[in-house]
Amino acid sequence: MVSMLTWLLQRTPIEVSVLRDRNALYRVNFEGLVENPYTLTIINKTQQLVHYRVAISGLDVAKLQSPQLTAVEAGQMKRIPVTVVADGYDLPNKLNALDFVSTAEEDHSIKASISSVFYRD
């Protein structure tokens, strides 16, 4: 009984994972900016529809190209293609750490963060 209560109290209502595009670590767009494509997977472990907003942190010079909000049905999983864009000259290293942060619009205490890497040429 105690272990069941502990499990319920520690259970997170969201699970997030990130995958890099297997074909290319990065690409340079027509403006000369470096792009890194990713696929985020969000699992909604709640019992209601939740709208998630995705942001990045840890790499201030980068911009995230993704949908404003992503709706995920109760108990469902959704894959979201996103792209992070930065000027290669503004990046300190060839490999730069960043975090993807997914936050529920209905309850800002429901959030998850996952780390990844941004590559430049």
From TrEMBL:
InterPro entries: FixG_C, Ig-like_fold
Domain of life, per lineage: Bacteria
Domain called FixG C-terminal immunoglobulin-like: residue spans: 4-119
Pfam family, one: FixG_C
Name of the protein this chain belongs to: FixG C-terminal immunoglobulin-like domain-containing protein
